[in-house]
Amino acid sequence: MPPADYYPVTISTNETPQIHDVVERAAARFKQLNGHEVRIIRDTDIARHPRANDSAFLLARIWDLIPEWVDAVLFYERSTVPMRILPEIPECSFAAAPDHALGLENAQKSWPLFQETEFYFHHGVFVASRDTRALFEQCFAMRGQQFQLAMNLVMQSQLGVVRLPKVWNYGISIEDDQIDQPSMVSCRGMPRPWPVMQFLLGLRC
């Protein structure tokens, strides 16, 4: 199969029927809006890849779980709902949207790197090219850290990370600013995001 301009992926393990339904509907919405079919990685896929057996850092093994012909992956968390067509996909090694202001503030208290960059991304939506595979391996080796922190430390210390606008990854329950027309809405931070996702998926896009 020839390489696409990007390969959308989400990971959904330990699904209930409700989770399965919203993940499938979100993937269908993504295809409707953007014309790309989403690869949903599930428990059966992971079982075939013994290297991807650390659930806390499963995302760091993403290059083990997708076809070799893929040159660029667009990942989104399963608690994310596509709402509008994505902006143009950047051609870069790695790109992500900023976390909320408190995330940056907390990271800056402990890590001078983020004081220098004045940036801290949320890992729930990102674009990565295959040349980052070794960096994802470095993230996996940092399993003593929280995964988002590990990703920020590795990617920002070794790459010029492209900073996406928040329309790419808008957390509706935690953001400190308002965005009129986000492309991807994240329900992160909610104890049970699935009813909210069902509501958002019921809206006309």
Task: Please explain how this structure is put together.
The protein is of the alpha/beta class. The protein is built from 7 helices and 9 strands; from the N terminus they run βαβαβββααβααβββα. The chain has a single domain, classed as Spore Coat Polysaccharide Biosynthesis Protein SpsA, Chain A (Alpha-Beta Complex), CATH 3.90.550.10. Helices cover 34% and strands 18% of the residues. The protein has a 6-stranded mixed β-sheet, with helices on both faces. It has a 3-stranded mixed β-sheet with strand order 4-9-8. α1 links the parallel β1 (7-11) and β2 (39-41). α1 runs parallel beside α7 (194-202) and α5 crosses α6. The longest helix is centred in the first third of the chain and has 18 residues, at 17-34. The chain is globular, with a radius of gyration of 16 Å. 34% of the residues are buried.
What is shown here, in short?
By secondary structure, the chain is an alpha/beta fold. It has seven helices and nine strands; from the N terminus they run E-H-E-H-E-E-E-H-H-E-H-H-E-E-E-H. The mean pLDDT is 90.
Radius of gyration of CA atoms, rounded to a whole number: 16 Å
Which of globular, elongated, flat, extended, rod-shaped describes the shape? Answer: globular
SSE string, helix = H, strand = E? EHEHEEEHHEHHEEEH
The end-to-end distance, rounded to whole angstroms, is 30 Å
CATH architecture annotation name: Alpha-Beta Complex
Average per-residue pLDDT, rounded, comes to: 90
Helical amount among residues, as a percent range?
25-40%
Q: SS-based structural class?
A: alpha/beta
What low-confidence regions span 5 or more consecutive residues with pLDDT below 50?
none
CATH fold-level topology: Spore Coat Polysaccharide Biosynthesis Protein SpsA, Chain A
Percentage beta strand: 15-25%
The strands making up the biggest β-sheet line up spatially as 2-1-3-6-5-7
In CATH terms, the superfamily is: Spore Coat Polysaccharide Biosynthesis Protein SpsA, Chain A
Give the beta-strand count. Answer: 9
Report the biggest beta sheet as strand number plus sense, adding barrel if it closes.
Answer: 6 strands, mixed
